[in-house]
Amino acid sequence: QVQLVESGGGLVQAGGSLRLSCAGSGLTFSSYDMAWYRQAPGKEREFVAAASRSGDRPSYRDSVKGRFTISEDSAKSTVYLQMNSLKLEDTAIYYCNAEHRVLGARLKYWGQGTQVTVSS
Questions:
Q1: Helix %, strand %, coil % for the chain, to 5?
Q2: Taking the chain, what is the end-to-end CA distance rounded to the nearest angstrom?
């Protein structure tokens, strides 16, 4: 079965850095657009970053631009989210998402999430 497993979350002080990983299995990694979402307590899940296809640039929500970087390692079927200059408002559960590049949302998967907590 398809699995997306996030890792790398934890507790970090404001201004610090974390690198999240999402390892995919049971799918052809190159057939999917990979993205990161997050959900803070009491709030709706929100888009964070999306990897790009060849020739396109990755996309980010405005609040993380210049601080977060999404990247992929196809050989390892893994997508990363490098988070620098972390702020208190970045505290959330971060989820990995895979959406089929042809079938779109009709073939879409979520990981279980990894907790990121930023302290003052």
A1: 10, 55, 35
A2: 40
Using a 10 angstrom Cβ sphere, with 0-12 exposed, 13-18 middle and 19 or more buried, the burial of residue 79 is buried
Phi, psi of 45 (to 5 degrees): -65, 135
pLDDT in tens, 30-51: 899 999 999 999 999 999 999 9
Give per-residue pLDDT as tens, 96-109. 999 998 998 899 99
Sign, Cα dihedral of 105, 59, 30, 82: negative
**Unique residue bearing structure tokens 């398809």:** 2
The residue among 110, 113, 69, 67 whose CA lies nearest residue 94 is 113
Nearest to 101 by CA among 51, 63, 65: 51
Structure tokens at 118: 């930023």
- The one-letter code for the residue type at 29 is F
Beta strands 104-110 and 92-100 are antiparallel
- Positions of E strands within 17-63: 18-25, 32-39, 46-50, 59-60
